[in-house]
Amino acid sequence: MYRKLVENSGAEAVLITDPVNMRYYSGFAGGEGAVYLSKNRQVLITDSRYTEAAAKESSFEVIEEGLSHKRTEILAECLEKDGAASLAYEDQSMTCSEFFRLQEALPQVKEWVRLKSTADDLRRIKTPEEIKNIAAAAAIADKAFSEMMKILKVGMTEKEAAAQLEFLMKKFGADGTSFDTIFASGIHSSMPHAVPTDKKIEEGDFVTMDFGCKVNGYCSDMTRTVVMGKATDKQKEVYNTVLEANERAMAQVKAGVVGKDIDAIARDYIKEAGYGEYFGHGLGHSVGLYIHENPRFSPSEDSVIEANVTETVEPGIYIPGWGGVRIEDLIVVKEDGYELLSHSPKQLIEL
Predict the structure, then answer these.
(1) 199-211 burial, b if ≥16 CB within 10 A, otherwise e?
(2) pLDDT for residue 2
(3) How far apart, in whole angstroms, are the C-alpha atoms of residue 37 and residue 46?
(4) Residue range 2-121 in CATH 3.40.350.10
(5) Which position among 65, 90, 216, 324 has the lowest Cβ density within 10 Å, counted as fewest Cβ atoms?
(6) Per residue in 294-328, pLDDT tens?
(7) Which CATH architecture best describes the domain 128-340?
(8) Total-model pTM
């Protein structure tokens, strides 16, 4: 895959500094350092804390950087060996200060080429091994949710409940969490990315849990919303509207669809139900080594979704001062449909 990146870059050599892309192209999980790629060589640059691990994880040549052999000096040596005068860099993740420092230190580079989304785009279609890891992470999240339903009760704080859920995922084999767990109860559930607080969970609360974990670096992502006690008619109406939007959108997923068209299926249904103003975010995103990847199901996504792309499907309704519901599944797009990776129940759970 790194050879394809060099070919597509428009430059004689490529510099990778984003930790996720470093792992994808080199296999090195440490996240500290840089990767130099050309037709002739593949070099992983990192410091003494990681050189042993890097040598085990990557097939690239590992060169140690430090005070006596700086990264820019190593890059200059690589460029000289290749006779390269053009270098592509990750303009979407590199800071301006880092770029200017490199420009000053590498005068032999006559042309700096912006990679834009090239490095990320090659990660869109997942390999069978990647899908296996994502599915394993999703299975752990499902198991943790099942156990959480036995533990969750009125009187727990959001922070306590979030910690319990994260503990369960690690207990069942997760390497870590995909992102900071969202655990929102009552009126807090109207905030799509609410941060867990000391608020105690109360009778009658909607409780929204957005969580995921990692296996071999690959993420899962799932959201479920439950109600503490008996749901009111209003809660049932809002919940079932979100559930129907979720299922209608997924029913139309297959390779060849356009991202914004899938988003519109869920968005239009929620609007017709009278809640359009309360659904503000995109319907979904891809998941891989990073939790929010492209392509997406969103109003601005014009690209065609290909087979073996992972996507979340996560419609929601969020009513300020009242509460909210989100239901999120993780799927793999297939030629004639999709493979579901999130298997936790979606019918309204009343605890």
Answers:
(1) bebeeebbbbbbb
(2) 86
(3) 15
(4) yes
(5) 216
(6) 999 999 999 999 999 999 999 999 999 999 999 99
(7) Alpha-Beta Complex (3.90)
(8) 0.95
